Amino acid sequence: MTTAVLFDNISRHFGAVRAVDRVNLSIAEGEFFAMLGPSGSGKTTCLRLMAGFEQPTAGHIEIFGETAEGVPPYRRSVNTVFQDYALFPHLSILDNVAYGLMVKGIGREERRKAAEDALAMVKLPGYGTRRPGQLSGGQRQRVALARALVNKPKVLLLDEPLGALDLKLREQMQEELKSLQKSLGITFVFVTHDQGEALSMADRVAVFNEGRIQQLGRPEDVYNQPKTRFVADFVGSSNVLTAKLCQRLGLQASFASLRPEAVAIAPAADGALSLSGTVAGRSFLGATNRIVVDVDGNRIAVASPAAHSVPAIGSPVTISFAARDLHPMEDA
Amino acid sequence: MRSEKSNRAPLGLKVAAAAGLAFMHVPILLIFLYAFTTEEKTYQFPPPGLTTQWFAVAWDRPDVWAALTLSVKVAAIATGAALVLGTLCAAAVSQTRFFGRETVSLLVILPIALPGIITGIALRSAFSMADIPFSFWTIVLGHATFCIVVVYNNAVARFRRISGSLIEASMDLGADGFQTFRYVILPNIGTALLAGGMLAFALSFDEVIVTTFTAGQQSTLPIWMLEELIRPRQRPVTNVVAMIVVIVTFLPILGAYYLTRDGDQIAGAGK
After folding, report:
1. Structural domain that includes position A97
2. Does any domain span residue B42?
3. Which residues contact B244 (CB under 8 A, 6 or more apart)?
4. Per-residue pLDDT in tens (0 to 9) along chain B, 271 residues
5. Helices B136-161 & B116-129, crossing angle to 10 degrees?
6. In a shared domain, residues A251 and A194
7. Cβ(A122)–Cβ(A143) under 8 Å?
8. In terms of CA atoms, which chain A residue is nearest residue B167?
9. The total number of structural domains that make up chain A
10. Residue A119 and residue A125: Cα distance in Å, rounded?
């Protein structure tokens, strides 16, 4: 399989700040790749390094086998969908979409047709004569997508593409992006701080923290087997069990993760592990109740199906879970 | 919502406002009136008679034409230089970060805050120290110092409203620096430059103080008027020229006002 983007020990420092610190990654052609992390974790800087807006302090970048260092953004076969969409306010929607073709010197009729096709692809046919100011946020998002895709990039970079949309629209766009990527076969690299978005859309996820990749893998693996404490906490807010608690359960690890949905409020069945504590808090989340149990000062969250009865705060309970749901983690 | 009660101003305020406006504008109307007087030696009120002959006299005076062409040339070249330099300066200050950026920003604006006489004396001594003879070009240089400020101020305000990602988006879509300037930056700052240029032209056109220090033998239109006031001959010609100056400077300023007002819809759209 061809490698679309390769980061070989890439660092990008801004003065004393290590925005990106010795990052290695390899994105395959046709892959939907997510870079997930809190703000300031270096994920956006990585995207800007791919786009060419930033140059690495150290390391080597390849895009489809070609060295990318020193190549300006306008000579890369990569296009970006910006977080604020960055549509040109003085141009019509059609001229916005045709901009990339216009600066490449493609004739008026040809680029007009290509732009109209691209607008149809993002389900905005006939919007060409409007101005960006006349469109809603979701429509601008689609125009930004069409404007990037009309250039037939080898890699499409998306910077928090759905961040400004409301929940309903976001879910709809997630599906559309996914199916668009499947039908076009273009490599998509997208940056997000929303773990749900990353897990549901991406083929592989890189979890960033403080300029480094904490874990890189398939969404299921990252979710079920977080490698570090940070990943356990950031991706789906796992319970993090301390070494002392691990020892009590017969596990030799400095930290272990335990998903709230893997825990039940019930006495242990055969082969299951159990702990006892008192109920410290509860909240209704719709499909589940989130119950926080205090086990000797350790707070363990339990996702209990809404149909089950909720114990009162302060009452003693026993929680149980299967031994295979307890995952040892590195000390980080 | 504005309160209904405060919509009607009290009579006293209306009278005060009218008096203020009259104080500012009646003298200008008098200038216009004396352009039509039949008395050529003194400005007597009321004018003994009305005539339009001074327009014809002014038209036939070669010294009026010489002063007018000089003023237009100086203003045009000073504005042109200011447009280029002021835009570049505004781009540097608003789009990049470098050491001393705020200081540069302040130093660029300073010439307009300085009294013209200081600028004039400074330029005059600089020119004589450098052995530059006073000429058309020294006037242009003098005017450019404050024209740049006006262009810079207009351009920098507009540049700050262009989001940085617009320029990045253009580069991302394959446009090099020149194409980005041509297709994205220029259309977005165009009206601001036009407005700044018009203001600069108007400022240069009626400038007196800096000009007196940097001009050689030539007279720009305002200098010519100043000289004309002490001569008793054909006085209303000065008033005719004054009317022209008012029109030539007022129209660009009015235009600049409307352009920058509409600019909100041009650069701010979509943000």
Report:
1. 3-231
2. no
3. B68
4. 444 556 778 889 999 999 999 999 898 888 888 888 887 777 777 778 888 888 888 888 888 888 889 999 999 999 999 999 999 999 888 877 788 888 888 888 888 888 888 989 999 999 999 888 888 899 999 999 889 999 999 999 888 888 788 999 999 999 998 999 999 999 989 888 988 998 899 889 888 888 888 887 888 888 888 888 777 677 888 888 888 888 877 887 788 788 776 544 443 333 3
5. 130
6. no
7. yes
8. A86
9. 2
10. 5
Buried b (16+ CB within 10 A) or exposed e, B75-100: bebbbbbbbebbbebbbebbeeeeee
A304 phi, psi to nearest 5 deg: -105, 130
CA distance A213 to chain B (A): 26
Chain B residues lying within 8 Å of A90, measured CB to CB:
187-188, 266, 269
**What's this model's pTM, rounded to 2 decimal places?**
0.77
Count of CB contacts below 8 A, A vs B? 81
Domain of B161 in residue numbering reads as: 58-267
CA distance A305 to A117: 47
CB proximity list for A287: less than 8 A, separation 6 or greater: A305, A306
Tokens of A197: 């978005």
CB A282 within 8 A of CB A300: no
Q: Which residues of A touch B (CB under 8 A)?
A: 51-53, 72-74, 78-80, 82-91, 99-100, 102-104, 131-133, 140, 147-148, 151
**Chain B residues with CB inside 8 Å of A88's CB?**
166, 169-170, 184
* Closest-CA residue to A178 (of A157, A195, A202, A159): A202
Task: Tell me the CATH number at A57.
Answer: 3.40.50.300
Count other C-beta atoms under 10 Å from residue B231's C-beta.
Answer: 9
B271 CB neighbours in chain A (<8 A) are 84, 89
Q: Retrieve residue A42's tokens.
A: 């270096």
CA dihedral B3, B4, B6, B11 (to 10 degrees): 180
Please tell me the total count of domains within chain B.
Answer: 1
